[in-house]
Design goal:
single chain; alpha+beta; 5-stranded antiparallel β-sheet; 3-stranded antiparallel β-sheet; 13 helices; 10 strands; binds 6-diazenyl-5-OXO-L-norleucine
Length: 310
Amino acid sequence: MTDAEELHAIVAQVADEMRPHLGRGKVADYIPALARVDPRQFGIAVVTGDGRSVVAGDADTPFSVQSVSKVFTLTLAINRLDDALWTRVGREPSGSHFNSIAQLEAEKGIPRNPFINAGALVVTDAVLAGGRPADAIADITGFMRSLAMDEAVSIDPEVAISEEETGFLNASLANFLRAYDNLGSPVSDVLEVYFNQCALSMTCRQLARAGLFLAHQGLDTLNRIQVTSPERTRRINAIMMTCGHYDASGEFAYRVGLPGKSGVGGGILAIAPRRAAIAVWAPGPAAPRNTLVGALALRRLAALTGWSVF
Ligand code: DON
């Protein structure tokens, strides 16, 4: 078998193996618009540096990327602020729930890392840079469209509104950050951008394509655009590995061995450095930290390809 044939066979096998696990448990329902998603779906897309997309299952069905968006806003914020970002947010695993507030108080308004919600709000504030929310939302959407090479990428307004209507903890975190002088823009502006970035709707194929630069030292090998520097790319991958799944990050590193970022919509973006970007989507059963089926699929993919970084 050629490498290409082998990868097709592996992706098909992973999708097959997931079939008995689908539809068990329930989807994330703390955001009402997400509760309506059919939990029996599963998609996987692997995009390699030479532009091959190997997909299986529901890889072309759009889903709510949720916290996976935090990887891309972090890229924009690091490009804008460089090391100055790290005076406002840390780089250590939190060991706590994605929207926990306790640590933020103990650590005086400096979030542990950019992927817990408190840290992601600081990152979003850095992208907003005191400007208008509509402009920041357009910047983020444009960034995702160009990385995915697909103008169809868009925000699901129903999900964004649903987030806003139920986002009391996020509002608390943002107010807390503002009280500690760690937000430059008004709380309502930061929340508006954050809720909209989480409501980005993308397919596995688009998401894996968008993450490709993270597997190739910041170079989008298809657009031939240096999205960020090789050094920043290493750092983003390091934070995905150590913090990408909140208090399940150690478990994901142990079982999968790839930098990854999960979202409560059931998506996970994982990076196999120098090889490929991988997106999986399994909306149910969803744990808040990652999707159980998505993590299992990545574990099998890493085992069958030998792509673990360890
Ligand atoms: O902040 C929230 O509640 C969501 N919009 C995003 C959370 C999320 O995806 C957490 N991660 N797995």
